[in-house]
Amino acid sequence: MNFPGEIIVKEVGPRDGLQNETEMVPLEAKIEWINMLSETGTSYIEISSFVHPDWIPQLKDATEVAKQIKRNPDVTYAALVPNLKGLERALEVNVDEVCLFLSASESHNKNNINKTISETLPVLKNVSKEAKGAGKTVRGYVSTVFGCPYEGSIDTEKVITICDKLFTMGIDELSIGDTIGVADPLQVEQVTSKLLSYFPKEKIAMHFHDTRGTALANVLVAMNLGITKFDSAVGGLGGCPYAKGASGNLATDDLLYMLHRMGVNTGIDENKVINAAFYIEKYVKNLSSHQMKILNSQPL
């Protein structure tokens, strides 16, 4: 296998990790946690989502989070933005990157944002245009690429069509999501290889969930194909609020353990990430990462 010497790990815990928590994490805790993450060496943190509070109550404090965190000039601070109203809020607090999202599945898209894919695309096009006009980079998310909780398998040709429409909008990067954690390494190889026959690998990131324990194996396959950007969340936080049974994201701490022992550079301090995991664990349900399970089971 031919692995890259360096990988960019994009921390999505403050957004994708917290959005499905049942108990509200205090604003002050979110700010402290993001400040801790900012000092780990990561170059990217997705801090929140500017969606309507009724959609995701856990992230209703996005404006205050963005205002109060201590920004590291070496970190890109991103946020999810569903529409022009959300973009207005995001620009008011000067996020660095605007993230757009839609699903490759009609049913999931309807359940997620109450619109069809064809209804969603013009909205995203306007957001991308305005964000680029404001000097922001724009990232796209395509979810349920490897499987949908309502429709099952998703046609890769449909995924390619959606990706092409997003790149035509001028997005800078596209994150390919295994939203409910059903992907296996062979499927990842097949789908990713097809995507890379249309789009440059430098503009593709992978977003795996670990519902069935295959996330790290899927990372290895994607790395072997030349993918160098991966989304993850500290402690394996997260899940999809519209996909029952979908467990957490690929855990940042588990990913770093594997990569660093393979000699792959990330620029991130594992110990600082673990400290950040212990901090946020005081406010959320038990973290699911292997690293945290081991550390929590050790005697003091």
From TrEMBL:
GO terms for molecular function: lyase activity. InterPro entries: Aldolase_TIM (IPR013785), HMGL (IPR043594), PYR_CT (IPR000891). Residues 7-274 form the Pyruvate carboxyltransferase domain. Keywords: Lyase, Metal-binding. This is Hydroxymethylglutaryl-CoA lyase. The keyword Transcription does not apply. Transmembrane segments: none annotated.
